[in-house]
Amino acid sequence: MTRRVVVTGIGVVAPGAVGREKYWGNLTAGRTSTRGLTLCDPAPFRSKVAAEVDFDPLAAGLSEEQAHNLDRASQFALTAAREALDDAQLGDSYDPRRMGVSLGSAVGATTALERVYRQMSNEGQLWTVKSDAPPALYDYFVPSSFVAEIAALANAQGPGALISTGCTSGIDSVGNAAELIHDGRADIMITGASDAPISPITVACFDTIKATSTYNDTPESASRPFDATRGGFVLGEGAAVLILEELESARRRHAPIYAEIKGYGSRCNGYHMTGLRPDGAELASAVTTALDEGRVNAVDIDYVNAHGSGTKQNDRHETAALKRSLGEHAYRVPISSIKSMIGHSLGAIGSLEIAACALAIRDNVVPPTANLHNNDPELDLDYVPLTARSQRVDTVLTTGSGFGGFQSAMVLQALGGRG
Hints:
Blueprint: E1 5-14, E2 17-18, H1 20-28, E3 35-36, E4 49-50, H2 64-69, H3 72-88, E5 99-104, H4 110-120, H5 137-141, H6 145-154, E6 160-163, H7 169-182, E7 188-195, H8 200-208, E8 238-246, H9 247-252, E9 259-268, H10 281-294, E10 303-305, H11 312-326, E11 335-336, H12 339-342, H13 349-363, E12 365-366, E13 389-390, E14 395-402, E15 406-413
Parallel strand pairs: 5-6, 5-7, 10-11, 10-14
Antiparallel strand pairs: 1-2, 1-8, 1-9, 3-4, 7-8, 9-15, 12-13, 14-15
């Protein structure tokens, strides 16, 4: 019999909030955390807006050594993991050999790698870099160091993995963790994703393909998913870490339970690095797979947490995919994009969205799509503009779409839900 998997802890580092409850309060208030770019010089770039985290590693409880040596994304991951572990109230009740780590990241330690390279090469002027590299340079080069840091934090000695599938990394890492528990290879998984990509190289990459917003004069409303005036995504950063646990294990220790992971699906479109087919077939297939795995009917979905990046093609593609996979129910279910408030943190965003889904189930609230003022006639579903809704939220679908053609979906449900 397949073992059931539940969420028993959540930790968050996000634009506008370090901490789970402040994060959720911002989302339900429709409060945007996008602003002018400050983490690097905005002058050379067409897009000068970002969703940045106000983060002090020492104030967050990290040591002087961690603050000095760890990449920003690793610091985010550790901070979120600590909150999640505290939230799950695990204590010393687990066998470390049955606890694993599955973490996602799209770009790893890009920020630290770029900073150190610039220092060692005299801003790229030297062909042979100086030899006084910091000891942590290898950790920056290998994103799996994030997993090692969290494993050491919790003394987790079970399976470990770093999942890097672009912008779906944060869903895929949680899907991998859930499958390990389903299959009996672990009882508890620390999972989620972290990215801190706001650096010159990343900003330049997205500038080149014109994927990011140029609403530089109004940064607080620059992220406009599903709006007729949308002009690309706002680059963000952050982390979310979840504690997944086998249901009976959680019940035995009377753990807090947010939701059950019911189903997960992932597809690759084999089509184009950045392009999407307009019919949304691959994302629809991922959604259908997640529903089928969870034995959940499309009509039972109470809320869709959309990828909703705010690019022209993605919002069309996703709307088509939801119609294809949910049928007529797509016109009735509320759909929203929290990227309107916290930007797009690449690999981290999928886990931040899963955290929001679990909190939506807990509180029976659908967060809104901020900055949605102008209807696009091509996009004719209910995208929950501007204001959160209080309603029954029993079963939630979350979707992700990433460059490279990656498409993923996950279904979460209140324990004892309708599916």
